[in-house]
Amino acid sequence: xxxxxxxxxxxxxxxxxxxxxxxxxxxxxxxxxxxxxxxxxxxxxxxxxxxxxxxxxxxxxxxxxxxxxxxxxxxxxxxxxxxxxxxxxxxxxxxxxxxxxxxxxxxxxxxxxxxxxxxxxxxxxxxxxxxxxxxxxxxxxxxxxxxxxxxxxxxxxxxxxxxxxxxxxxxxxxxxxxxxxxxxxxxxxxxxxxxxxxxxxxxxxxxxxxxxxxxxxxxxxxxxxxxxxxxxxxxxxxxxxxxxxxxxxxxxxxxxxxxxxxxxxxxxxxxxxxxxxxxxxxxxxxxxxxxxxxxxxxxxxxxxxxxxxxxxxxxxxxxxxxxxxxxxxxxxxxxxxxx
Length: 339
Fold this sequence. Notes:
Blueprint: E1 5-7, E2 10-15, H1 19-30, E3 33-35, H2 37-42, E4 49-54, E5 71-74, H3 78-87, E6 96-99, E7 103-107, H4 112-123, E8 126-129, H5 130-134, E9 143-147, E10 163-166, H6 171-180, H7 182-189, E11 196-203, H8 209-222, E12 227-239, E13 242-253, H9 257-267, E14 278-283, E15 286-288, H10 301-315, H11 318-333
Parallel strand pairs: 2-4, 7-9
Antiparallel strand pairs: 1-7, 2-6, 3-5, 4-5, 8-10, 9-10, 11-13, 11-14, 12-13, 14-15
Helix pairs in contact: 4-7, 8-11, 9-10
């Protein structure tokens, strides 16, 4: 399942006359690391905190640049940080404290402007440049920022759309609504084009289903091929009266089924050309056969699979390519006696 929304890092602004001592405490106690803001955003995940420091708390921060040399990325949430400061007797290091706006990161497909306009209208939101929204420690409204990048990866500051939205709603309620309305926003960005609804069936007689599933999901997300909107165990009947267990995925895509079949065929083979799984594809209850995607008159299945594997690997980002290779190695370990 492609993630459409996730929570961003928490922001804290410390007013302190003992900046260096406070930073050293946070680094030692919470393994915090110094960073500039643009880089800091890339280093965060859900549950992380970006800490800012100033000796002029009453003066509202006007731009990121004014504090960009005084930032820590803390691998803890704000509650843990504040509890640590109190319990460790470090309150004298802090004169006062402000919490920044809570952040929601939304992934957008297609036309970002259309999605931003839709949400702005639905919630009567205020639109501003993200540099201004993220350092406004005077407001408590949640901030929504947008990106086209997969949310299971690190998202850099440069990956974000230049405008974000400040929405006067409860943060947790808003986050829940976005998750429910995800498909609506996807359709808005893609301007309501028709989807292809397909079914992918995974079969492996060695039962390494978890590895095959992770591998498939990794590629579908990295290549942004579509959405998995349902999955379950089922039975298939390759021969009369012969039932085998398969893992079935309900898959939606804007790519034609034959293109998806080529991707699946490429994933069926290891780097040595060994077929290690069946990824069967069905569209409108019709099985898309490997012979339906023959190219350059290549009529040998293994050769065709090797060609499509090469195409898949040339399209993947390095981290995703490494992930596939790692999973292939784990899959092959489940069938050593068959090599």
